[in-house]
Design brief:
The chain is mostly helical. It has a domain at 3-61: Multidrug-efflux Transporter Regulator, Chain: A, Domain 2. 58% of the residues lie in helices and 2% in strands. This is Chromosome-anchoring protein RacA.
Length: 175
């Protein structure tokens, strides 16, 4: 059966069936155009998925009991045991190992570089804090030695006004 026929059988849209197959990584056969071909076994599997979804289980948590093995075809002219194929596979493994080694080296270098930068920033932060403390100390010292009439308005300590106590009747009636 094709996707549309299976979708009608299950009562869902064809795109829903395709999404189930993709997200659950179901191994379905395809025709020469790349369209899914469903067997009775596949339809039974999709019915299990639909039942679980109807019970309220989300698609990521759906469990499939009868996952079938993927079937593939192989040209008779190419043999896995061919020496050339084995040589290519060994070379690929070596290249993958070298790439992984290079990637690890790059990451290590970047980590060390970031660590140096963080240490430099921490040292600069310590210097800035010391400088701020010195400036504040100098500012406090100069503030103490300047006569009150020479201080700026915001640096003077103004005497606080004493609040007059009002009579309760005056507060209530506003006399």
């Amino acid at each position: 059966m094709n996707t549309s026929a299976v979708a009608k059988l299950l009562g869902v849209s064809p795109s829903t069936v395709q999404r189930w197959v993709r997200q659950l990584e179901l191994q379905m056969e395809r025709n020469e155009l790349g369209h899914y071909l469903f067997t009775e076994e596949d339809i039974h599997l999709l019915k299990q998925v639909q039942e679980q979804l109807n019970k309220g289980i989300i698609l990521q948590d759906v469990s499939i009991t009868d996952k079938k093995a993927r079937r593939g075809t192989m040209n008779a002219s190419v043999s896995i045991h061919d020496q050339a194929t084995e040589k290519i596979l060994k070379k690929l493994e070596e290249l993958e190992q070298r790439i992984n080694g290079k990637a690890d080296d790059v990451v290590s270098y970047q980590l060390l570089q970031h660590r140096r930068e963080i240490e430099d920033l921490q040292a600069e932060l310590i210097q800035l804090n010391e400088r701020i403390e010195k400036l504040e100390a100098r500012h406090d010292f100069t503030k103490k030695n300047i006569p009150a009439e020479n201080l700026f308005v915001f640096e003077k300590e103004l005497p606080r006004k004493k609040m007059k106590k009002k009579n309760i009747i005056t507060t209530l009636f506003g006399f």
